[in-house]
Amino acid sequence: MKIEAVDLFYLSMPEITDEADGSQDALLVRVSGGGLIGWGECEAAPLPSIAAFVCPKSHGVCRPVGESVLGQTLETPADIARISALVGYNSMDLLQAPHTLSGIEMALWDLLGKKRGEPVWRLLGYRQALRKTPYASLLFGETPDITLERARAARRDGFSAAKFGWGPVGRGEVAADADHFAAAREGLDWDAHLMVDVGQIFGEDIDAAAARLQPLDDAGALWFEEPFDAGAFEAYAALAARGAQVRVAGGEAAHNVHMAQHLIDYGGIGFVQIDCGRIGGIGPAKKVADMAVARGVTYVNHTFTSHLALSASMQPFAGLSESHICEYPAAPKQLAEQITANHIRLDGDGLIAAPDAPGLGMEIDPARLVPYLVETEIRVKGRVLYATPTL
Amino acid sequence: MKIEAVDLFYLSMPEITDEADGSQDALLVRVSGGGLIGWGECEAAPLPSIAAFVCPKSHGVCRPVGESVLGQTLETPADIARISALVGYNSMDLLQAPHTLSGIEMALWDLLGKKRGEPVWRLLGYRQALRKTPYASLLFGETPDITLERARAARRDGFSAAKFGWGPVGRGEVAADADHFAAAREGLDWDAHLMVDVGQIFGEDIDAAAARLQPLDDAGALWFEEPFDAGAFEAYAALAARGAQVRVAGGEAAHNVHMAQHLIDYGGIGFVQIDCGRIGGIGPAKKVADMAVARGVTYVNHTFTSHLALSASMQPFAGLSESHICEYPAAPKQLAEQITANHIRLDGDGLIAAPDAPGLGMEIDPARLVPYLVETEIRVKGRVLYATPTL
Lengths: 391, 391
Hints:
Chains A, B: InterPro entries: DgoD-like, Enolase-like_C_sf, Enolase-like_N, Enolase_C-like, Mandelate_racemase_C, Mandelate_racemase_N_dom. The structure is a homodimer of 391-residue chains. Chain A is α/β, with parallel strands linked by helices and 391 residues long.
């Protein structure tokens, strides 16, 4: 089949807060070909991503993403890799391109899976979608009491793992952070996994990050996520070498395979966290999963948005028994909940699995999304390059 | 002073060709504060970069670049670093942010230099702007004869160094490439520097790149630029280890200091090429220049656009005697020529220097630019987020 159309939909909550909560808006991607529809989702910044799809060409290797996608043939997984390579080369100098491509690439897998009547994880070579332990991805409360209560709520909701992130942690005294870690552990109890995410708060300050290692070990934390700038490999490696029980985690900012590989090889992380909505989609994420296995590092998804993005993010490691933990957006904004008509829910054992259904296995109900649609128009030299399409 | 306004101007030639010629469009940046004006230029993709400046916030660390710049205080170089760090943290999840920031950051240096009555290179700590050997940055011809003629023309124009890039090289047989290298050398003669740029054509294919080493050595090439994907450090290191005379060069794609540092530390390059219009501006470029000196690697600018960008790109290594070669856009499109009213010309010895004048020392004549202005409008929810400002 040919890729006949790629439509981008900017969706948003009516109010965007200052929380580091990526579920507040979305760029939904609809790809049409051969009478079928595939859906995908870009992780971040809808407007620049739309602009990267439609912008006028700047020169030979700074072309809009659309030019390398529209009209292409899609019959096999190799076609998806070929289209991605075409975007990579033709949009070399367009920084936003990998984020824009990510949602499109997911939609191509969804479309191909629907055409073949196969789940994407099977197209990736896995024989089954193993059940994973979902962890509730939560924000630290403003006080340890709020953190404690959120941890308890996660247990009540059936989670046996939870990650706390952002909020006040890393901004004040070590003792204050330790209180939050302890509160999270108390709320979860000792039979659950606890992970901590500090969202690059320490920049490249190794000592500031290292001061949190003992409190994290005291709380039995499994990993310590993104202590530093995404590119500060030397800081990651120095922290990993401090000999704590807690492992360093990172990788969500990777927008190509090399960035993730280098965080493993030079940064010494123990968990590599990949966002399919940023790294260029499912194909590059699968490459990182293979690298992680080869290097004895654990692959984990990074997902803080809809269950469309969740399904996509589970495909690259669906069949990997080494990777049993899975990020699960436990308290997303209503928009993220509404993007899919069906959801990936915890089973009786509190586990989840990628859908055993064609493509990504998620249904989109346009009617639910109309209230969130952000009408957008981009005009260049009087020509409309983009206007919100009809859902 | 306060940063009162940041205006972005999308300029373009009437026709954009498929050449890898970055001088075909530009995003000019005007920053106003304290009754003064500073000018800068983003290297690539005007529309996504404008979108990154004005886009609605997606969440706490995915904010538009404008939010971290407008209204800030600017009194010292440290303020520029502070504003850049603010953009880095607040726009963490906005991939296009470093490209957008680059032009703004340059304009902040220009503005501060004008306020202080000092050239930017002096604000960076250099006591003088040393003269550099400009190399004509040219595209390979479709045939070796055209390449030969372009090389001869560069000598006639007074250049004692030239770099040839892109075109047919790397796309066919090694022998055909060797003919181009030899033609370039013949046209330049043996007393000139010859450099070769293949624009990532070999992906990660080390053997294909290595097959060009002997022809490059035969032609006495000084460097072999961007043989691989910007992130393929292992391929760079493997090629550098093959023991050729020609050194490997790269770095133009770096959009932060870490990327450049890692290409040096893990990729083993001999020349690090920094584009101030991509890496976040002049401040980060200066950091890379300092790293290069410390590691015995030669810093070079990457500039293929206007003399505003050229002046900005010369500042970070203006006083470094180790770095005597300087990229000079020898055959830019008319637009790039028109962006500045004054130009950095070769002196009687065929050398150039960063202007000894306040700020970047370049004058912008708005009247010359009006014919190139690309009228652009971005509307979100009926509100105009961007409309081309008055020049």
